[in-house]
Known about the structure:
- The relative contact order is 0.12.
- The protein is an alpha/beta fold.
- The chain is built from 23 helices and 22 strands.
- The strands form 5 sheets. The chain has a 6-stranded parallel sheet with strand order 7-6-10-11-5-12. A 5-stranded parallel sheet has the order 13-22-21-14-20.
- Helix 21 links the parallel strand 21 and strand 22.
- The longest helix is centred in the first third of the chain and has 19 residues, at 101-119.
Amino acid sequence: xxxxxxxxxxxxxxxxxxxxxxxxxxxxxxxxxxxxxxxxxxxxxxxxxxxxxxxxxxxxxxxxxxxxxxxxxxxxxxxxxxxxxxxxxxxxxxxxxxxxxxxxxxxxxxxxxxxxxxxxxxxxxxxxxxxxxxxxxxxxxxxxxxxxxxxxxxxxxxxxxxxxxxxxxxxxxxxxxxxxxxxxxxxxxxxxxxxxxxxxxxxxxxxxxxxxxxxxxxxxxxxxxxxxxxxxxxxxxxxxxxxxxxxxxxxxxxxxxxxxxxxxxxxxxxxxxxxxxxxxxxxxxxxxxxxxxxxxxxxxxxxxxxxxxxxxxxxxxxxxxxxxxxxxxxxxxxxxxxxxxxxxxxxxxxxxxxxxxxxxxxxxxxxxxxxxxxxxxxxxxxxxxxxxxxxxxxxxxxxxxxxxxxxxxxxxxxxxxxxxxxxxxxxxxxxxxxxxxxxxxxxxxxxxxxxxxxxxxxxxxxxxxxxxxxxxxxxxxxxxxxxxxxxxxxxxxxxxxxxxxxxxxxxxxxxxxxxxxxxxxxxxxxxxxxxxxxxxxxxxxxxxxxxxxxxxxxxxxxxxxxxxxxxxxxxxxxxxxxxxxxxxxxxxxxxxxxxxxxxxxxxxxxxxxx
Length: 610
């Protein structure tokens, strides 16, 4: 069967047309692998593991099969379109992994820079550091105090990777480690930057640090040096929407001595590679995130791969114990990054008897039976509707949002936002009756009937919207939530800002969607008092352990799950691994599985092929 008859998308067909112009006699198996590489990016994979497709029909419904692994490898090695890792060609064969050239370069260069950074040791006054840590973390009684240890490593290393679940104190840790850096000799001259993948995450990070400064035991002149503004990574790097190139790179580095990146689990491979490349020599990089959360929509799961290599050898443990007074468990590092990685384990949000905390632990350990059994218990913060129907779900959503809709009709934005953040509906997917689009449409129809609004009326008091694209002129970013309220000048859409609320006429808003229900992906980094998580009735590749964990941990006080037992079990048992080689390049000793599940998301970055 010719490749032209296969179900290839426009991006794959454009790539194959380019490759045929470069090598008109290219073997169909080679071209098919190139198309599969392109498809793999759309699923979140960085590369194509040949063992996954060799000897099989990659498109099962079509009678086209690839040769066995040894023959396929030989065909690739003999093609002018393919080079080994040290060469240059549109496709790069690295062992049994096939890459589009640019992504192999991203991965290789990122690994080299990270390994170089992790090996460097900035000059540190340990006596001052010990005093700083003792004072700044005096409130912590845990042993060992992982927040203090993470801060110590971030001061003593150029690279620090700090992972922790909700409520483990990542923001507390970072603001205090920055204080410790400022107290080091010359620290008052450091240029410190804050960044995050999205505008919403950047604003939330800046707000959290501003709030944490008030009770910080730090001299006022140093406290004033702590940054209060954060930027998106794209804006920090000077991204241009029409090009994969950015303004800041190794030739034009950022004017920073320290960069802190929050929600780093959402950063894809290409963006992380560009970010590290743009750091000047000697700069520190501090990555914060949750290794168990959903990975980036685009290709790669960089943060999770970095966290694979954690561990303190005997020397590192002894040094940390001398500096911090903490007893540090010795564990052989599983990668060359070694003690650059610290996991925060104590949750200040979820107490020991928390049902949500226990549910998160059982999900992350893959304990499907234990997850279902826990949900059957009478835990005050857990509810489960095991036989959901859409009609009952819509009734429940209308009930859940009723306090908000009543508050919204009063017109006060502070009251409306407080009520709206008290309850939020999350879904696994965008489309379908159990997805964002179906639930928002059906729920809005019910709301309009309740308040006798015309069915064609788009804007009404209480409509909630989510911005879909960044608008720097308006200061609105992808993921920002706005509430439509009535005021003296008619309907206005209010957004939370640093100095109160900002109001916009509905016609001024950038592209947006209704937001009574939102996907778990879009909820990352947010917190709500109560969360209702609705899972689809039918099996879905989107139902994974990371999605389930991320969804339930958005709730601070109560989570309500609407899903069949089979769907919950499938989610807990499905650990989506993305095909990549970064962990191996960093020397991770534990094997990283290469089987991958489809991830639905944007493919904008995938135009940057080779």
